[in-house]
Amino acid sequence: MRWHGVGWRAGAGVVALGLIAWAAFEIWAAPPVTQPIQFPHKTHAGDLSLPCTTCHERAEKDAVAGRPPTALCLSCHAGGDATPEIKKVQAFEGGGEIPWKRVWRLPPHVYFPHRTHVVAAKVTCQTCHGPMETLDRPPARPLKTLAMDDCIACHEKRTGRAERPAGPVAVVAARALSTDCNACHR
Amino acid sequence: MALWGMVIDLDRCTGCQACVMACKAENNVPAVGPKEAARGRIISWMHVLREESEERTRFLPRPCLQCDDPPCTKVCPVYATYRNPEGIVAQIHARCIGCRFCMAACPYNAKYFNWLRYQKEGPGQNPDVSVRPKGVVEKCTFCHHRLQKARERARAEGRDLVAGDYVTACAEACPTRAITFGDLLDEGSEVARLARSPRAFRLGEELGTRPKVFYLAEMEGHRRV
């Protein structure tokens, strides 16, 4: 009888924990993002092999990559026959920007300059953003969850581990690839 | 490798508080409100100390003095505050557990605690500086986000950082140019020249903290009657 009682309670506990976990996920996990236009990265970056910076041009010029301006879409998609999705783009021809929603977000206490990583370090976009060129619709969530470990791992790998312990801290921070907290945190 | 430092000329300082306001705007330093202020919880990374006598009023702007041998970093149990190789005493808010040991250790009262969540992220704030959450210690960082940006720009342009690329907000705002900022190791720089001046002194020199904020003492001839 006693064992039977414990089993029943344990079962209820498991169910309750499951419910709590599910509720926590629903509350704290980022809600899925629905974009105004079902942009296929596969067609552009995959089939046409356009470099990412063709449209995400600010990634090479600024710290923040931003979203491509509508005029850039229209420079290719201005006229001719169009699919329903392209027609949605053309509807913005009169002015105004497509209200793209942000998917990738770093915590505000992190400074990540795209320009340094794309232009100077020549890190491929896929390193952080995942295989975007295989998607035929916009992602509802980031393809990769980035943690500080990912940043540190790359910074250490690229400098070469053998070099890392050598020298005082001053030498470590003088390098372009710094693992100093202050280099990224703000 | 640079060693960032500051020289504040007390003869030039008029106590106008432009540096205080520039710092608050630049670094999203919260206004804590009257209730909290009455409890002594005002946050002001740059603070103008005042000494009044019958003869005259003297001012002393006090940012974090960025000690070369900082007492605050030695007591931090989580490495949230440390002396960066370029001499900046960093405060990593995401790492801080709010134990306030560093505040107790700082002989200059340059560190401040967020007793409550004083502000939310919103328009009007500097996007380059994070908004501190409740329960962390904050302090003057020598506007190190400006260094991050300046370095990023220099790197993209394929050059080294030059003097003037990186200046703190307080130094930029000072109308009498009392605050000079720059690299102390660069012999030719204005800040290194002034730091060697016979008028130069540091706060609490006897403590051995070796601050990198130097003050230029007032001259006798300056005395107002």
Highlighted features:
heterodimer, A: 186 residues, mainly alpha, B: 225 residues, alpha+beta, Alpha-Beta Plaits, four-stranded mixed beta sheet, two-stranded antiparallel ribbon, 7 helices, 10 strands, 21% helix
Structure annotation, total helices of chain B: 7
SSE sequence of chain B, one letter per element: EHHEEHEEHEEHHEHEE
Instruction: Please give the largest β-sheet of chain A.
Output: none
Spatial shape of chain A: flat
Task: Please estimate the helix content of chain B.
Answer: 10-25%
CATH architecture of chain B: 2-Layer Sandwich
- Integer tally of domains of chain A: 2
3D structure, described in words:
The complex is a heterodimer of chains A (186) and B (225). Chain A has helices at 2-28, 41-47, 70-77, 84-90, 114-120, 126-129, 148-159, 169-174, 181-184. Chain A has 186 residues and is an all-alpha fold. Chain A has 2 domains: 1-30; 41-146, no CATH class. Chain B has helices at residues 18-26, 34-38, 71-75, 101-105, 144-156, 169-173, 190-195; strands at residues 4-9, 47-52, 57-62, 81-83, 89-91, 111-113, 137-139, 179-183, 200-201, 213-216. Chain B has a 4-stranded mixed β-sheet with strand order 8-1-10-9. A two-stranded antiparallel ribbon of chain B has the order 2-3. Chain B has one domain (4-220): Alpha-Beta Plaits (2-Layer Sandwich), CATH 3.30.70.20. The mean pLDDT of chain B is 93. Chain B is 21% helix and 18% strand. With 225 residues, chain B is an alpha+beta fold. The A-B interface holds A 63, 107-109, 111, 113, 115-116, 119-120, 168-170, 172-174, 176, 180-186 and B 1, 82, 84-86, 88, 90, 92-95, 121, 128-131, 141, 144-145, 148-149, 152, 155-156.
